[in-house]
Design brief:
The complex is a heterodimer. Chain A is α+β, with helices and mostly antiparallel strands. Chain A has one helix and six strands, in the order H-E-E-E-E-E-E. The model of chain A has no long low-confidence stretch (mean pLDDT about 95). Chain B contains eleven helices and 20 strands. Classes of the chains: A alpha+beta, B alpha/beta. The interface between A and B is large, with 26 and 46 residues.
């Protein structure tokens, strides 16, 4: 299901709140910027996942909570959490 | 039957049942002793899944590591594989026919992939075990709204195809359009003086499938010949591969629902001189769609191997499939995938792989499958329209063999559309396409000769010195033996 920028940010906020066990109101939005990612896994492959080697446009979403900053990556059809305690996740 | 005979028969039957059960126990006991694994699941006490295991299961679902690929050593029978799997509370889900001893193992008791790999790796019958990694090509991308400004090449270059978007295909014919450098291309217009390709050559696109109804591709799609029976696999059963092969259990149609595979297919062989859209490196060829990633963009190592297995089987059935184009990868090494590609090489099939888009030196930071040191692999970096290594492209003086156009590449897309995309994904099918062109004029070349031909005829560029093995960009004209006018 295609999503727009606002929907991607909302999904990222919901995910981070659930992951940290905080309310969505406690999740701050630091920045949302357009970005080109190196592959179709948005440069955030999960586990041993392989991806198409095509430059993929999307959004880099930086959220903050509990004094830390977290980076989500999204395009029209997916949201990924990048480098959360050393691992990537598909949201 | 009288009452006395009935009693005798019942007694005999009971004795046989007891004997059979005892024999089974002895056999299972012997197996347990030999391989050091517990009794099969049916006889083992039921396990409760702990919260930690459940968490591991959820984690696996999220990270996509649901299965394990195990290669058993030569001589281990199918029955033995099944017994070992049962003893570990697993089951053999599939066997990969092209690679002896390779099987996909389904976990039945919620263990983590790492634990399953460790369990099998410890067994003397096992050569290696690894998680069945998920592969993704990503979902559909927004369609860019490019406006293609006509730049009629025909008056300057007679003999070019009449495809109206050719002037935007700088990788084929670069006359300096859009700030490019003249002849920073693969020399297609000279190669086409000798050959336009041939429908006797089959090039497989191992990807998200191909939109085989695209008007610019439909005429060059492979279809199972009438004298070749439907594909049969012991595990998959009979598969109708009329339009190609899908390794996805719930999508047997190789129709592309993502776009990535269709883009790669157009570079190899969009129909040329049909007064429509673009031209492929080959105006004529047969493109075999192999789908191992679905609409959502995720597949698995096992599905990729199944598709390679299919190509090898069809080659043995007489289909002249000589090239696999693989525009995907990761940093995760898979020995099972490596074994499957090696088997393809033994079947005289060239495997052209994307070098990756991490701007990294692949000699130091390997990317797979392009980094496998196999004699049938060509690893491909990407160039821009000025003959410079694309900023995103991986490189490697020892591990990346050749470069090809890979930035701002126009090709076919879903729904009869055309889009421009960048990546070593796009460079790879240029090389696969050149391999197809070469085979159209020299069909009897071995995979070794074909690979050497492509690498030895590359145009050396200052920008690629020390960056790729050949130091050059693929050159179709030199590869097919046409005279290139400079």
């Amino acid at each position: 299901m295609a999503q727009d920028r606002e929907e991607a940010v909302a999904r990222a906020r919901r995910d981070l709140a659930a992951r940290l066990g905080v309310s969505e109101g406690e999740v701050g939005e630091e920045s949302v910027e357009e970005a080109d990612f190196p592959n179709t896994a948005l440069g955030a492959p999960v586990g041993g996942e392989m991806s198409g080697m095509m430059i993929t446009s999307g959004w880099r979403i930086r959220l903050s909570a509990r004094g830390r900053t977290f980076e989500y990556r999204a395009d029209r059809n997916q949201v990924r959490l990048h480098n959360f305690d050393g691992k990537n996740y598909r949201v | 039957m009288n009452r006395r005979n009935y009693t005798v028969h019942v007694a005999l039957a009971l004795a046989l049942v007891v004997l059979a059960a005892a024999a089974g126990r002895i056999e299972r006991w012997r197996q347990t002793r030999v391989v050091g694994v517990p009794l099969p699941a049916a006889e083992a006490p039921p396990r409760r899944v702990s919260p930690e295991e459940e968490r591991a299961r959820r984690e696996r679902a999220n990270t996509g590591e649901a299965e394990v690929l195990v290669r058993f050593k030569a001589g281990v029978s199918e029955e033995r594989m099944q017994a070992i799997a049962a003893g570990l509370h697993d089951r053999v889900e599939d066997e990969i026919e092209s690679v002896e001893g390779l099987a996909a193992i389904d976990d039945l008791d919620g263990e983590s992939a790492e634990q399953i790999v460790a369990d099998y790796s410890a067994l003397p019958e096992v050569e290696y075990a690894e998680p069945n990694y998920q592969i993704s090509v990503g979902p559909l991308e927004p369609a860019p709204s490019h406006i293609y400004i006509g730049h009629d090449l025909a008056p300057d270059f007679p003999g070019l195809p009449n495809d109206p978007m050719l002037s935007e295909q700088w990788g084929l014919v670069n006359v300096g359009q859009r700030d490019g450098v003249s002849e920073a291309d693969i020399g297609a217009r000279y190669a086409w003086e000798k050959t336009h390709g041939s429908r006797k050559v089959v090039v497989a696109v191992l990807d998200s499938g191909v939109d085989y109804t695209h008007p610019d591709l439909a005429g060059n799609m492979w279809h199972r010949p009438a004298d070749v029976e439907m594909y049969f696999d012991p595990q998959l059963g009979t598969v109708d591969d009329e339009n190609g092969f899908s390794a996805l259990a719930d999508e047997r149609d190789p129709m592309d629902e993502n776009g990535h595979g269709t883009h790669c297919a157009g570079i190899i062989g969009a129909e040329g001189d049909n007064n429509q859209g673009i031209a492929g490196v080959n105006w004529q060829v047969e493109i075999m769609p192999l789908k191992f990633m679905g609409r959502s963009g995720f597949g698995s190592t096992k599905a990729a191997i199944e598709a390679i297995n299919y190509v090898i089987a069809r080659k043995k059935d007489g289909v002249n499939v000589r090239v696999i184009s693989a525009s995907w990868g990761s940093r995760q090494r898979s020995r099972a995938l490596e074994d499957a590609i090696r088997k393809a090489g033994e079947a005289d099939i060239l495997f052209v792989a994307a070098a990756g888009n991490d701007s990294e030196n692949a000699d130091r930071t390997p990317h797979f499958p392009s980094n496998y040191k196999l004699p049938n692999i060509i690893s491909v970096a990407a160039l821009d329209r000025r003959d410079q290594l694309a900023s995103f492209s991986n490189y490697g003086e020892k591990s990346v063999h050749v470069a090809a156009p890979g930035k701002e590449i126009l090709s076919t897309w879903l729904g009869g559309a055309y889009e421009e995309h960048s990546g070593t994904s796009m460079a790879t099918p240029f090389v696969a396409g050149v391999a197809g062109l070469v085979l159209s004029v020299e069909p009897d070349l071995s995979v070794k000769e074909l690979r050497e031909r492509i690498l030895n005829t590359a145009d050396r560029l200052d920008s690629l010195r020390g960056k790729v093995v050949t130091g050059g960009r693929v050159n179709a004209a030199r590869a097919v033996g046409a005279v290139q006018i400079k």
